[in-house]
Structure formats: C-alpha cells, structure tokens
Amino acid sequence: MKRHLISAADLTRDDAVLILDTAEEMARVADRPIKKLPTLRGRTVCNLFFEDSTRTRISFEAAEKRLSADVINFAAKGSSVSKGESLKDTAQTLEAMGVDAVVIRHSASGAPYRLATSGWIDAPVINAGDGTHQHPTQALLDAFTMRRRLIGPDAGLGQDLGGRRITIVGDVLHSRVARSNVDLLHTLGAEVTLVAPPTLVPVGVETWPCEVSYDLDSVLPKSDAVMMLRVQRERMNAAFFPTEREYSRRYGLDGDRMARMPEHALVMHPGPMVRGMEITAEVADSGRCTAVEQVANGVSIRMAVLYLLLGGNEPAVSSPRTDRTEEK
Amino acid sequence: MSKILIRGAKVLGGEPQDVLIDGETIAALGSGLSPEGATVIEADGKILLPGLVDLHTHLREPGREDSETVLTGTRAAAGGGYTAVFAMANTFPVADTAGVVEQVYRLGQEHGYCDVQPIGAVTVGLEGKKLAELGAMHESAAGVTVFSDDGKCVDDAVIMRRALEYVKAFGGVVAQHAQEPRLTEGAQMNEGVVSAELGLGGWPAVAEESIIARDVLLAEHVGSRVHICHLSTAGSVEIVRWAKSRGIDVTAEVTPHHLLLTDELVRTYNPVYKVNPPLRTERDVMALREALADGTIDIVATDHAPHPHEDKDCEWAAAAMGMVGLETALSVVQRTMVDTGLLTWADVADRMSFAPARIGQATGHGRPISAGEPANLTLVDSAYRGEVDPAGFASRSRNTPYEGRELPGRITHTFLRGRATVVDGKLA
C-alpha cells in the first residue's frame, strides 16, 4: 500500500483484496455490542471537508471513532477558508496542531493529490471525494458490497471480482464514483459497462478499461450488478438531456427494467438517491437494492483503510485478526 | 556613445564575422575589423540575432505590480534577448484609453531595458460589447497598432467584424484570443483522454478552431488582416493553412510552451502547467512545430504571464492561468525547432524578430543585421546547456514550467540601440 489513498487507480489487485479482507474483519466489530477497537488510540485524524457531505463525513467519523482515534472535524463553511485562507495554510495549521492523518473532501479535482504531493504537510492523506475525479473509498465499499453479495462474506475472502459484469448507469461525466469504480473494478477483474446518454460520457472515455453503451435495456440481462448514479436535475438546464421524464424513460431503473436483470443481480446506489429520476421507489425499496447496506459497508471499508494506512504495520495491541480468533 | 566590436559572431548562424557598433547603429560587418577605440566582445562562434520582438507579453502594470512591473518585465525581456515587447491590454485599469497606453509606453522608455509597445484593448474593459477608442490610442504618443482583448475572446461576430474593418483606417491589426466562451465554461484543461481521467473541466480544441475559422472568413469578407494569438491545436493549424492558401491576410503565433509541453503534465495537478490556451496533446505539439517550420505559423510569441506564488501554490481549480516565458523562450525554440533541424538560426531570426516586428509595425526592430541599421542585437551561446533556475529570473514572478529542466542556449549579450542591456549573461 502507498502512504496515501488518492485514487482507486493507485491500488494493486493485492492491495484492494487486502482492504476488502480487512474490512470483513472490521465488519465483525460492528456486530459486537461494543463496536470499538483500540487500534488508533492516541492518534488524531482530521476530517477536512471543503464540500458539503453529511454521509461521507459521518461514515469516516464513525470509522475513526470505532478505531479509537481522536477526531477533528473541519468544515469549510464558517471557517477561515470562507475568509480567503488557502488550502495550504489550512492544512499546515491543522498539521501544526498534531494531526496524524487527513481525510479530505474537496470540490476541486486534484486537491487531495496536491495536498499529498506538494510538501505542504507530512501526514497521510485519504481522499474522501475530489471534484469529478476520484472517490476511492466509495469504490472500495461498492466492491466490498458486491463481493459479499455475489460470493459471500467468508467465501469471498482473498477473492477478487474476476469475470463479474458490472453496469454503471447515469452521469458518468460528472461522477467521481464512476471513475473510481471503473479503475477498481478493472483491477479486481470485473467487466464494466458504462451506460449514459452520450452527453454525460466524457470525451476521452475510449481509453478507460470498460465498455460504453447508450442502451440500458440491452445491457441489463448481462449484469451481475447495476449501479445507478445520481443525476442532478440542474443538468437538464445545461442541455445534457431534455427533461427529467425523458431521462427516466431512457435511463431510469424501474420495476420493469429490474425484472430484466438476472435474478441474482444487485441494484446499487452510492446515494443520495433521486427517487423518480434515476431510480423508482419500487426498485429503491426492493430487497435487491443494496443502498443501505453500502452505507454500513462504508464504515467497515473506511476502518480498514485507516487501519492499513495508519496502524497496519505495527504489531497491533489488538489487531483485528486477533479479535477474530477470539470470537471463534 | 562608444564603439563596440563583436568579434567572430555567426551572424544569423552563418560564417563568423566581426560586427562593429558605433553609437546606436551597426557601422560595419566584415572580417578583421579594427578594434581601435572599441570595447571588444569575443563572440567565439556564438550566434548573433537581431534583437527579439515579442508580440505577446503581459507586463501587469498598472494594477498587478505584485506579479510584474514594466521595469521587471522589461529586464526579463532583455535577459531573454528581446529588444521590443508588445504589452497586452488586460491591466487594471484596462489599456483601453490613450491615457493608459501612454503611461505604459513612457514607463518602457524611462527604464530603457527594452522598447515597450502597448497593445490597446479592442473593446471597453475587455467586455466585448463596445469598441474602445482605437483611433485615439493609435494617435497617442504610444502609437498603438495592435489591438487585442487577449485573455478574453472578441466573441461577438459583429463587434469582431467592426473592429477588423475600423482599424484599416490607420493600418492596425486585431489580435484575436480565439476561445469560444460557451464551449469553455468551467474549462480547466485540454478536453481529451487526460481530462476524462483527471475529472477536470474540458477545454475542447473546437472552441479555438471555430473562432479562428469564423475570423479568417470575416477578415476575408471585409478585406482586413487578422492576427491569431497562441495557436494551440493541430486543427487551428489546418484552418490557418487553408486561409493562407486562399489568400486571406492572416498571421498566427505559437508560444514556446505549446511547442514543448503536453497535457500529460497536468496529471501532476501542479498549476504551473495551467495556462490559456491549455497544453494540448503530442499530436498538436508536432503539428505546431511543423507549421512554424513551414511558415503557416508566422511567429513565436511568449504570452509571458507572470503570477504571484500564491496564485499557483494551491489546488488546480483555484490557480491562475499562465506561465512566464520571456527568459526561456529562445532556449525552448532552440530545443524544439533548431536542435531538431526544423529551423535554421536565420529562420529563428525571422520567427522571433523580423516577422513579429513586421506584424506589429515595431519601428527600428526586426531589421537586417547590416551596416546602417539600428544596433538591436542578441548574442546567443547555443552550445550552453543548463537547468532552468527560476531564482535567477529578472521577472518578479517565478511561475515557469521549466524549473529544473535542462534547456539549451543562453543569451550572453543584448543590445538596445547600441547600448548593452545584457553583458555576459547578466543585466547591465
């Protein structure tokens, strides 16, 4: 593993499988009455959020607290950033206060990369979503969810997603989730197909390790998992598609379309869902939709990433592996 | 003023000769010229070029003296071998009145490192709505002949047409920054494979090419000449080539950085590579080199764009666009065009001095190196190899994309009307 987690593309197959396996161990902690490990006791993690995000921030915070880290939450709103302080000064200020790792969410693509590589700070940097670039922990939790559902929590250990066919549908152009998933799923051996209206597929997509289709119905029967991306209503004002209704008709997932998927196939959504737009309530609330499970898995994945980046090399006082043995 | 004898210089890269400067002019060329009464400079086979002329410089004064002033910018220009620079109009206030252009012109004269020829804004406040008083700027002491809203595109076709027509009355030229604004909203880098991966807003080649296509046709229609700033795409080259073959009076420039760097560098997210127009692909770079070699592109212009450190020491989206270029331009041209065999030194003299002086009507600049001509000269040690160290720049800003890169060539002497502004690689 590298020192930072900036892009899903930075992970090797073995790195990714190690994170998924570690997350399985972390998930067992969540099933205990006391959901806490002492692994990061005395370490301080800063959640540096320059962009509004409730889900991801809370998920990281839960993961950090379950590992006993001290947590500092920094939200750009109401902070010195709104008074014009730069990313560099903000990060250096926080590091001067003794931060051991920085989890950063930023609206500018590449901001976490800059933070990790510009020599501004020394602490490991975990990308919690940057612009339309990457959101690696989301891709990891998605892969984790797929492996658990398609192979099984125990049977999946050590396994990748070789040969699985994953379809990602929606606003690929503006989606860091899509970019991260294409990279990671490819690394894990899955076959990825992106489905979107041509306006929402980036120019230059031809070099991505995936297929692109404009026809959702033809792809559905061949999918082991269908991941629906959020489509913001305001996109239609920029002529990416004519109306919400037309988008839903052509690219939304409703009950009829879900019926065309193989029986074992999952419906996934990174949230927040726009019900009635890319997904109907019928599908969102069905047993095949893993949206809520993905949230739970997100905590396990983020615990695994924090553990591996911050504590993974130390003979941990109570490594999760030891805990697992104790459980048995 | 005293005499200077430059001994054994390869004039325009030719056979070594002696060149005698007397006062402000070149007195004689030949071999074995008498050094009597003259300061002797042993050129030892260095290349002697006419003083370089930059048709596209941002000197930032008035308004952004934290990034550059006329003094620091002209010192940088002299260091880079320039004897004349055209200062773009996007200052604060904008150079859209006779008052502002005269101020910039006079500052250049007072400091004396390099002649400064102000460029006037085409439209009031660079807003693209209303023509600035182009005639008044032309008639001012600054004698403006080149007009540009550079940094912004004159995107309104009617305003562009009128500007092209209007400046014919006094032989002016409009220099267009070709960037269709709607196609580049939120644009951060060249749109293509790299932008798709990095998730940075794409800047399509067509946003440049569509404006160039429109403007060469407008120029043809109204019988005007038009100059296109900083061509950056292979498609733009094809359009200009087509326009020239059709007899349209168009000239075009390319920057040194577009001859060398590609959008692959943006993978570092280091804003030192953020520039307008953006760095393009290898294919574009090769097309630009070829076009500069075959004359489709007339000149090299630096688009020297100084920015203070804090405007680059940040995340990509927040960073300012632009690179400094005056002090590295000739080295980059040597590396990309001369050392590759695409241009001779005589061609370099054309692309970086004769042709830009002609397009901008810079009197006394871009003249042949012969007896009786003004002694605006640049002596280049083309054998030199060294890493670019921004700490040594005369420019107030350090936003160079070449830091730590090895580039060939070094200016050892620059003469402005017979007076040395650079001696042994140092500002005089």
Description of the molecule:
The complex is a heterodimer of chains A (328) and B (428). Chain A has 328 residues and is an alpha/beta fold. Chain A has twelve helices and nine strands. Helices cover 38% and strands 13% of the residues of chain A. The longest helix of chain A has 21 residues, at 291-311. In chain A, 49% of the residues are buried. Helices cover 28% and strands 22% of the residues of chain B. Chain B has helices at 70-79, 98-111, 134-139, 157-166, 193-198, 205-222, 234-245, 256-260, 282-294, 329-338, 345-360; strands spanning 3-11, 16-22, 25-30, 38-42, 47-50, 52-57, 82-87, 115-118, 146-147, 173-176, 189-190, 202-203, 226-228, 250-254, 299-300, 377-387, 406-416, 419-423, 426-427. In chain B, the strands form four sheets. In chain B, strands 1, 2, 3, 4, 5, 16, 17, 18 and 19 form a nine-stranded mixed β-sheet that branches. A five-stranded parallel β-sheet of chain B has the order 9-10-13-14-15. In chain B, a hairpin with a 2-residue loop joins strand 18 and strand 19. At the A-B interface, helix 4 of A face helix 5 of B.
